[in-house]
Design brief:
InterPro entries: Glyco_trans_19 (IPR003835). The protein is α/β, with parallel strands linked by helices and 388 residues long. It has 2 domains: 185 residues, Rossmann fold (3-Layer(aba) Sandwich), CATH 3.40.50.2000; 172 residues, Rossmann fold (3-Layer(aba) Sandwich). 47% of the residues lie in helices and 17% in strands. It is built from 18 helices and 13 strands. Strands 3-2-1-4-5-6-7 form a 7-stranded parallel β-sheet, sandwiched between helices. The chain has a 6-stranded parallel β-sheet with strand order 10-9-8-11-12-13, sandwiched between helices. Helix 14 links the parallel strand 11 and strand 12. Helix 2 crosses helix 18 and helix 11 crosses helix 17.
Length: 388
């Protein structure tokens, strides 16, 4: 009875979450669910998507309004993001927010953090505990962003290679003041591994309009190719809203996708359809890592505009773009990028995949072991709920 009485008198903890895309929303929803189990007296607000809203976050803005991909598109939305940052700051000030959790989306979140920090220093905003959960990929963009991360109260990473990068890849004097925590990967708690493979080829076109626009022309041409006429393809869309991109593609290419006999479209969770699939062809993103934890091999594809590709190739400092490959430090999943994302290359890789898929499943099993045991989300939630 004492515990219940004490709990009722606890001060309500107010947390603002800032994420910008579907993968960040998924991660945010998992930690919100866990934190709410630990402390019922916690209120969550922020820039989130459907999954976090379902988990109990009151949305100040929806991430669907942040639908951008690449450097050029981000520049076009600069005014929008500047305006929104001001609105979020005002909300945080007026509503007595105590903690801000930034989830991925570094292009916006680092600038938003800088704005909040400036207002705190000017005494125009209450003091805040500010945590970066899944920080910008400094191992891809270079060490300059480390300087910005030093000013956060805490930084939490979700891959062992990230923790190693901070601990071993930096000189002690450079990393001074930067506290980086690693508790394991939260997806380990959410996805069960299976070594059983089905008969269908899973298609994952991505969650952004630009991704789908690049994915669909190549994939529809592939499906109609004589060499794969006996294969069954299952295209999983992230949302029913994405049907508008399918309809736009059909109009432009004068085709009815629903009449392609060996293609089926689904909105079911990947967990539910995984057992029916033997491997996937997927746009690079968090989803390729999710299905790797479920033991499903993937051919990873990605295409962006020429200018975005040029900028990325001259700035990004990584050998692979897929999280599974990065964590393994070798190519487990074939990556077909830009001009390599073609019907001809896909046909070659499908043939190779048929021969090697069981071997890849074994590799995925070993890779999963590196990511920690269950209970990761509980550890992260406990840490996030700690007082400053």
């Amino acid at each position: 009875m004492k515990n219940n009485k004490g709990l009722s008198k606890m001060k309500t903890k107010k947390i603002f979450i800032s994420c910008g895309e579907m993968s960040g929303d998924l991660h945010a929803s998992y930690i919100v669910e866990e934190m709410r189990k630990k402390n019922k007296n916690t209120e969550f607000f922020g820039v989130v998507g459907d999954k976090s809203i379902k988990a109990g976050v009151k949305a100040i803005n929806h991430i669907k309004n942040n639908d951008i991909m690449g450097f050029v598109e981000a520049l076009k939305k600069y005014r929008y993001f500047t305006k929104k940052a001001g609105e979020y700051l005002e909300f945080i000030r007026k509503n007595g927010i105590e903690t801000v959790i930034f989830v991925d989306f570094g292009g916006f979140n680092l600038k938003f953090f800088k704005l909040l920090k400036k207002k705190i220093q000017e005494k125009k905003l209450q003091d805040l505990k500010m945590i970066y959960y899944i920080p910008p990929k400094v191992w891809a963009w270079g060490k300059k962003r480390i300087e910005k991360l030093k000013k956060f109260d805490d930084v939490i990473v979700i891959f062992p290679f990230e923790k190693e990068y901070y601990d071993n890849g930096l000189k002690k004097d450079e990393s001074k003041g930067l506290k980086v925590e690693y508790f394991g990967n939260p997806f380990v708690d959410k996805y069960e591994f299976s070594d059983k493979l089905g008969e269908k080829i899973l298609l994952l076109p991505g969650s952004r309009r630009q991704e789908m626009e690049k994915f669909l022309p190549v994939i529809i041409e592939l499906i109609k190719n004589e060499k794969v006429k006996n294969e069954k393809f299952l295209m999983k869309l992230a949302s029913k809203e994405h049907l508008k991109y399918i309809e736009s593609f059909e109009k432009e290419h004068k085709i009815n996708i629903s009449k392609i006999p060996n293609l089926e479209i689904t909105f079911d969770e990947i967990k539910k359809i995984r057992k029916d699939c033997k491997f996937a062809i997927a746009t690079s993103g968090t989803v390729t890592f999710e299905i790797s934890l479920m033991g499903l091999p993937v051919i990873v594809v990605y295409k962006t505009s020429r200018i975005n590709a040029f900028i990325a190739r001259n700035i990004v400092k990584i050998k692979y773009i897929t999280l599974t490959n990065l964590n393994a430090n070798k190519e487990i999943f074939k990556e077909l990028l830009q001009e390599d994302f073609s019907v001809e290359k896909l046909l070659e890789e499908i043939e190779i995949m048929e021969k090697n898929k069981e071997k890849i499943v074994l590799e995925l099993k070993n890779e999963r072991k590196k990511l920690g045991n269950s209970g990761v989300l509980e550890k992260i939630a406990n840490y996030l709920l700690k007082d400053k």
